[in-house]
Each structure stands twice: as C-alpha cells, then as structure tokens.
Design a protein that fits this description.
Blueprint: H1 15-31, E1 37-42, E2 53-60, E3 68-69, E4 75-81, E5 86-88, E6 91-95, E7 98-103, E8 109-117, E9 120-124, H2 126-135, H3 139-148, E10 157-171, E11 187-191, E12 203-210, E13 213-214, E14 219-226, E15 232-242, E16 248-252, E17 257-268, E18 276-288
Parallel strand pairs: 10-18
Antiparallel strand pairs: 1-2, 2-3, 2-7, 4-5, 4-8, 6-7, 8-10, 9-10, 11-12, 12-13, 12-16, 14-15, 14-17, 17-18
Helix pairs in contact: 1-2, 2-3
C-alpha cells in the first residue's frame, strides 16, 4: 500500500476530505504497527570463506529476528562502508521471508552496512503526529515532544517519515575497524566501543546522532528477541534507555544473541515552513556473545 499521498496536499476546497483520508490512513497504519520495524542482520556477523557479506532485511516486531521480507523497490539506498571506502550495494533480491543483500568488499576488515527505505509523506495534527509515533515504536520521542511542547502553535504538521537500518559485519580475521563510521542518515547509532566484540556482562556505549548532531535525552529501545540457546522467544523483550547529556546511551548487556536497537527522532525540516518536519526511525542490530 502506498502511503505517499501527495494529492492530499493540494486544493483548499477539499480540506475535510484530506483530513478524513489522512485519519483513515493513520488508523490503518497504527493497526498494523507491529509490522513496521525494519532491520537488517548479517547471516553471519563474521563473513564466510568467500568473503561475501550476506545481509537479511526484514520487517516485523512480534518475534525479532523473525519477520517478513521488504520489497526491493522500497530500498532507495544500500551501502557497505569500510574504514576508507563506501560502496553501493546493488545485489538485492527477495528470498523466502527476507530481503537479501550481498556484497564482496575488496579487503578484509570491519564494515558498516546501512539501508534507507523510501520516504512517506503525511499531513496530521500535532496530536496525530504523537499517535503516529507511538504506533510506530517512537513512544519516547512522542513523550519528549509532548514534554517540551515542541509542536505548540502548529495546527497541521506536514512530515516526511523515513526508515533506516544498520548493522556491522567482519570480513576476514583482520583489517581496520569501521564500527565508529557514520552513514549520514538523518538518525543513526554510532558505537563508541566495538559491537562485534561484546559479551554478556559488558556495556555497549553508543552515540545517537540526529541530523549529524548528538541528541541528548533521546529515547532508545533495546529488543532481545532470541535467548542464549538460539531459539525464538515467545515475544520480543524491550528495555528502554535515555541518552545522556552528550547524546550517549549506555547499554548493559545481560543476554546473549542478536539484539536490535531502535529510536525515533522528529526534527524541523531544513529551510522548511514552520510546520514542515522530518520524522526518522532507525534500527541497529548487533550480537552479544556468551559471558567470557
């Protein structure tokens, strides 16, 4: 279903119709919100002997890392970023329940993989924006906007919703690290210590960047959907954290297996009118090894 309803933004005589359509779209979107987390996860966090990084992209939320595939045509950018390189991923297919991305870096090392999905445009009241955020896993950001009264004085918010996902993988046994690289996304996590070498009992420290700047007080959810034996949990367990004054979140790691971070960030659109906003959602997947 296409949610980019540019036709809703024209024609003063159809204001009532526009808001009715937007309200129906929002209600439908909220009713299926559990299906709108998007993440990417390496098939192996350490690449195989062929040196190819194989990534699965899925959407869901009920039983991470299980989910359904994301259509190829929703991907507008996919890159694999090394310590000194950035290469577009062009080998994308859908197989089974996953979007599949394949890339073979030219040298050993650690690589950041980042994927951007096509954006979607909405027109809503401030209250509707808050409802949308809560339905889409951005409850902490909705609470921040409400607490700071950010949307005060705005009758209607026109916002562009964007969805991003990132992960990190190792090619070969050695090579330069890339976990601290950024992809230039509107919202992204930047680890301060290596997420490929964390164990139960460690703490992962990450800076949260919104439009390239640290975001103090932004909310972050950590989903632990797989137990240490590797079997799917009955449901996703989410724990919420808040970034400190430097935009850094500190995550104590208490369970082995794949983990998914997610956050949402609302910001005024650069050079836009007072009611033009961007709303970004992002995820980051890494894996926690058993205790040392």
């Amino acid at each position: 279903m296409q949610w980019s309803n540019s036709s809703l933004f024209s024609g003063r005589s159809r204001h009532g119709h526009r808001f009715l359509v937007a309200a129906v779209a929002l209600a439908m979107f909220a009713s299926t919100a559990v299906a709108h987390d998007f993440w990417i996860i390496p098939d192996m966090f350490m690449s195989g002997p062929d040196g190819i990084v194989h990534i699965s992209g899925r959407q869901g939320g009920g039983k991470f890392p299980d989910g359904t595939g994301v259509p190829v045509d929703r991907v507008i950018d996919a890159r694999i970023i090394g310590a000194t390189t950035s290469t577009k991923i062009t080998d994308l297919t859908v197989a089974g329940n996953s979007l599949k991305l394949h890339s073979k870096p030219s040298a050993p090392g650690q690589y950041l993989v980042a994927v951007s999905l096509s954006t979607r445009d909405f027109r809503e009241t401030p209250a509707g924006v808050l409802r949308w955020l809560r339905a889409e896993g951005g409850a902490p950001e909705a609470a921040r906007l409400e607490r700071e009264n950010t949307l005060s004085g705005i009758d209607t918010v026109v916002f562009t919703a964007a969805s991003y996902a990132a992960t990190v993988a190792q090619v070969g046994a050695n090579g330069p690290k890339a976990f601290g690289k950024t992809a230039g996304l509107r919202l992204e996590f930047v680890p301060l210590n290596d997420p490929l070498h964390v164990h139960v009992g460690d703490t992962l420290h990450l800076k949260v960047l919104g439009n390239g700047k640290p975001q103090p007080g932004i909310g972050v959810d950590l989903a632990t959907g797989v137990d240490s034996a590797g079997s799917a949990s009955a449901s996703v367990v989410r724990v919420s954290f808040t970034a400190d004054a430097n935009g850094v979140v500190h995550l104590p790691l208490q369970k082995a297996g794949p983990m998914m971070l997610r956050s949402a960030y609302a910001s005024h659109k650069a050079n836009g009118a007072h009611n033009d906003w961007d709303v970004s959602r992002t995820t980051y997947v890494f894996s926690v090894a058993a205790r040392h």
